[in-house]
Amino acid sequence: MGSNLNKKNIDFDIIENGSITSVPGFYASACHCGLKSSGKPDICIIYSPGGSVCSGIFTTNKFQAASVIITKKQLEKTKNIKAIIVNSGIANACNGKKGHENALETIDIAAHQLDIDKKNILISSTGVIGQQLPMEKIKKGISICSDILSADGGHDAAKAILTTDLVTKETAVKIKTVSGEDIMICGMAKGSGMIEPNMATLLVFITTNVKISGKLLDSLLLEEAEESFNHITVDGCQSTNDMIIVMANSKSNVILDNKAGKYYKEFKNAFSYVMRDLARKIILDGEGATKLIEIKIINVKKKSDAKILAFKVANSNLFKTAMFGQDLNWGRINSALGSAECNFDPDKVNIYIEDVLVVKNGMGVDFNRKYTDKIMKRKEIKFTVDLNSGKEEFNVLTSDLSIDYVKINALYHT
Amino acid sequence: MGSNLNKKNIDFDIIENGSITSVPGFYASACHCGLKSSGKPDICIIYSPGGSVCSGIFTTNKFQAASVIITKKQLEKTKNIKAIIVNSGIANACNGKKGHENALETIDIAAHQLDIDKKNILISSTGVIGQQLPMEKIKKGISICSDILSADGGHDAAKAILTTDLVTKETAVKIKTVSGEDIMICGMAKGSGMIEPNMATLLVFITTNVKISGKLLDSLLLEEAEESFNHITVDGCQSTNDMIIVMANSKSNVILDNKAGKYYKEFKNAFSYVMRDLARKIILDGEGATKLIEIKIINVKKKSDAKILAFKVANSNLFKTAMFGQDLNWGRINSALGSAECNFDPDKVNIYIEDVLVVKNGMGVDFNRKYTDKIMKRKEIKFTVDLNSGKEEFNVLTSDLSIDYVKINALYHT
Question: In this structure, which topology does domain A13-284 adopt according to CATH?
Fold first, then answer.
């Protein structure tokens, strides 16, 4: 995954100001029901009255929120989903039987309000761990949201899923087809702390209007999550709640039969873009982040080693504070690499910031500090670490570690 | 290792205000030669004119400073060491052939100034990576230090090895023997960032007056480092330079023959205390630290799993910022545990802060928030995580992640 998403040679268009309800047949709404003391929106509904084929991937954390456990089970029963209820402010995690019951009750309430079957409803939560959902407020929230569902509600929903995020994160694209009908893929994401790979770290909801089998959608989602969200980290922490859900409502006449079929490749490309763009937006909005930093490890024997090394640097507090201080302290990259649990020859390591060689054969070299000082002031910076010992590579996007990261997380009280 | 070092039933005495030169036969001195812009002491000599049996353990980072490479080689040639030259301010690491040559020249200069053989000299460095040692300044520094070597120089040396440390870290003990002669073990340490296990993270120098074989001293040092310095973390980062060196100068008539011999057990106990006390002092002086936090994982099947879990919590930025915020956010402990790469049953997990149960069977329970709020204000806090599934345990000492940690590391410019 690249920090600079190359849009050359792509056969789709970005929908400016698009949202998940830009896709025909999807409705959404949000309101403040009282979970957040700030008064900001804290509950939303994503609604597909005609139903949609749905795939999901979930946190690998051993402590799993009720929403994760239940939504996984729901998808095992049927992949045909009509509504997702998402609340922010309370994670409804690590709170026992009562938490589980409240999650099930949320589905009951939604089924009643929307007049649909319970089995076609998913739930998702994010926020503080250990608290119980105040069910009267949830009930009120679902009732309000049910009444105001709208084909323009996407942006409202994108706001309602946020916690410590500063901005909404939405990406929308369309692919022109010969029939004149557009394939649309639109997504929204939430997450700015606890961002690490293995799907443990964020909420993402993507809508599309293609007709696709659940199996094919599952495999596509898994593949593209690996190439996008599994390449980012803010703080190396994984959460109990997070999930990526894709809903395909078949509203267009475009049928994606199999990987060799018509439009599959185009769809995959555009889907990949949406996933990677949302992942990138999450890092740009990382808690306290002032920079987006790409660490690319190249010419490694094993890809798994490249991944270990990339994350070792990307999660190094010393490296991340140096980035915040706009200091090209490459010694902290060396230190981080050298302490990773994999084998490489330190004497073969070259390190570049953008196109400037700063470490050759493991040692610092002379370079134009005036020029690199300018680079260090940029909002986006790329480091390349060349191990000169193979052909594999892996890149990670990360943010810096700022004073505001500490403030945000020290003040976010339970 | 405990955060509260239990001194009950121990058969040694703490030497108040002791230093490495409290041990008869050891001399030290320090001065400012110009490596630190602050004008603070930046070079010192530890001197044992009669020679001493010496053991060392070293960073496992793949990028190793010249001082680490050379000191290891020196100890392979002979364990009889008379002097150690330590500089702070410049790490003399990742700077190639010139760096290596400068390190060797440092030994040459010291050999000349102290009029001893090169093979009996070790070197140690700490500071910024990638810079070359200004050899004229080093020469001047060694010359001055050689002239002012003193049996009272220990405290000066303890100051000269510091970088971002706020305070010196020294521990000294003595054991009474039947002959009336005391066994003495005195140490000093440096380190406040880049603190993580595997000896990758700090400088420690310990002096003692027993007569002991190099082999026995090696095995004791390895064993006790595992029980002390390998139980601490400030930021999960490992450095290129760090080492623990013990010098035994045989000045007392106490001979430690073998593990079953007279006084060995007492010596081991006291040595263990010195190591653990220095490790603890490093955490207390962790960069920006406002708290010392012990994470103890108990009743685990495998000790290796207990270690993984303890470090996962101890290195979690979200946990550490919550500690800085004095917020008992146990959800972040759950999250960290759940994302560790080892198997356990989350439904069996109990978590205590001091003696207060806050999580039972993986879920939050009601507890006296007024009382725990008071605990959270303490300087030292202990968390116990009971996995209820075995008999192994592991504890780690860590510090919180504060605004000052970021300031210190963002401003510590190359």
Answer: L-amino peptidase D-ALA esterase/amidase (3.60.70)
